[in-house]
Amino acid sequence: MSCDRVHDVLIIGLGPTGATLANLLGAKGLDTLVIDREPGFLELPRAVHYDGEVMRVFQNMGLAAALEPHLRPSSGMQYVNAQGLLMLERKPAAIKGPQGWATNYLFHQPDLEDALRRALDRFGCVEVRNSLEALDITQHADEVAVRVRSMHAAGTDEVLRARWVVGCDGARSIVREVISGPLHDLGLHQEWLVVDVELTSEVALPQPTVQYCNPARPTTFVNVTGRRRRWEIMVMPGDDPQTLLEPANLWALLAPWIRPDQAKLVRSALYTFHSLIASRWRAGRLLLAGDSAHQTPPFLGQGMCAGIRDAANLAWKLAAVVHGEAAEFILDSYESERLPHVREFIDTAMRLGEIIQTTDPAIAALRDRRFTREGTTEIVNLSPTLGRGAHTGQALTGILAPQPRLADGRLLDDALVADRFALLTSAPESLPASPDARTVLERLKACQLSDPALGGWLESLGAQHALLRPDRYVAALANSAAEVASWPITSWGFSS
Ligand SMILES: Cc1cc2nc3c(=O)[nH]c(=O)nc-3n(C[C@H](O)[C@H](O)[C@H](O)COP(=O)(O)OP(=O)(O)OC[C@H]3O[C@@H](n4cnc5c(N)ncnc54)[C@H](O)[C@@H]3O)c2cc1C
Questions:
Q1: Of 174, 213, 328, 365, which one has the greatest count of Cβ atoms within 10 A?
Q2: Are strands 2-12 and 104-106 parallel, antiparallel or unpaired?
Q3: What pTM was computed for the model?
């Protein structure tokens, strides 16, 4: 059965990446269909941490108030050796970080996924269909056909049509298979056991996340939210992974911290942590986002964060193309900007993985001597510069803008027109006034804001004007109307 309706965008996969993208496209009024083979969200023990940038994305989706009661600002993360030496440390979250939010949060992934899905009800233009599996994909000149099958009634295939298809379909992505670029393997593949418990009595456990770098059994402990606690336990040579999942064996592994009369087991699963990046994120009308495009070991808690960043980067570009405001080639900047950005997170997570996953006692001893000599190393929150793309490429562009509170107490983004470019200045008299500069700003449909609270930041950039993109990365800087008029917006895909 083939449907006559051609959607603007079909998203395959309603995990955190697909749900975020659907919310962002819904806000832009795009006719969006999201399908997922599951009847509801995956009840698996996965993400527990996200950062201030991701919270800012949720703020701009209008979800901060709904999410905040379910979050806990992080109490930091510590890498300790078997003797308790603190080797590396991410400090407790700054409550008011540069993004206007705490720098790091702990959360329960099902709480987030529930909020993201409920938020989709706000948009008449977004339709969600669960229990529908994408089976194959055919690209035509101006649309894509996706054959899907209901998970309920075998044999009832249907063909869905859309101008653009985004594969938010996770690690085993069918969209990635069709795009058919090789998967770049960065070399980490390690099996870990993940156990979530709910405390039934008071137990003295650490507040920060602790990475126990014990070569006999590398283990991560996370104080998640409320009574939820998480252990991630490396599967060692000689372990029989399947028997590890038996409750008696799980409790034996947790014995150094907790007893069965103090908590109940909620979920456990075996994962192989990978480090992979798809070498092509776009082929014609097909795009990848989230775990389908990249996978990282969770030592920084950044896999889902990267998917949310993908969604924020892609949404405004797709909307600009669908609304006829930008040429299709702007979509190529999605991969060129995001790939080196996510690569930096994966490389850092792999370096942390080398520290915690060391199982050779001699190598662990060398590592420990190094940290004894050098002292504790601080893990700083990364905020890499985007690869080349829809920004001028001059120094200090392609970076995420901070979000200060303005003179009237509002957070910056709350004073901007959502999903639009924004020209920022610190004083109204310095707004660029020439006709050519105005034309550039009109083509971008940019709003303008001047506020004294922006002065210090603009001064640090050496600029009177900063142009923010809808995803709040810095697109361009200028000190005069002539410089604004010369911004290369046609090379980004906008008409001059
Ligand atoms: C133990 C562990 C700890 C982690 N900790 C963190 C952390 O603290 N912070 C963090 O940021 N990240 C963390 N991550 C990573 C994070 O969980 C993932 O990166 C994130 O869930 C990926 O989201 P996604 O939406 O891209 O993909 P997924 O969540 O995998 O969603 C893909 C969806 O696509 C659907 N689908 C797939 N194929 C089809 C098809 N053919 N047709 C229809 N539907 C389909 C699936 O049913 C699924 O719902 C962790 C991961 C693990 C395993």
A1: 213
A2: unpaired
A3: 0.97
> Which residue bears the tokens 């069965």?
260
Report the CATH fold assignment for 2-72+103-183+275-342: FAD/NAD(P)-binding domain (3.50.50)
Q: Which atom of ligand 1 is nearest to the CA of 48?
A: 8
Percentage of residues of the chain with pLDDT beyond 90:
93
Residue 171 alpha carbon to ligand 1 centre in Å: 7
pLDDT digits (tens, 9 = 90+) for 218-252: 999 999 999 999 999 999 999 998 899 999 999 99
Helix 16-27 with 303-322: angle, nearest 10 deg: 30
- Backbone φ, ψ for residue 294 (5° rounding): -160, 145
Nearest protein CA to atom 3 of ligand 1, as residue:
46
Which tens digits make up the pLDDT trace of 421-437?
999 999 888 788 899 99
The pLDDT of residue 429 is 80
| Nearest one of 491, 453, 458, 492 to 477, comparing CA atoms | 458
**Can you give the pLDDT at residue 307?**
98
pLDDT, tens digit, for every residue of 334-383?
A: 999 999 999 999 999 999 999 999 999 999 999 999 999 999 999 999 99
Whether 304 lines ligand 1, by a CB cut-off of 6 Å, is yes
Residue ranges of domains in the chain: 2-72+103-183+275-342, 412-492
CA angle 335, 314, 414 (to 5 degrees): 135
CATH topology of domain 412-492: Glutaredoxin (3.40.30)
Q: Which atom of ligand 1 is nearest to the CA of 232?
A: 1
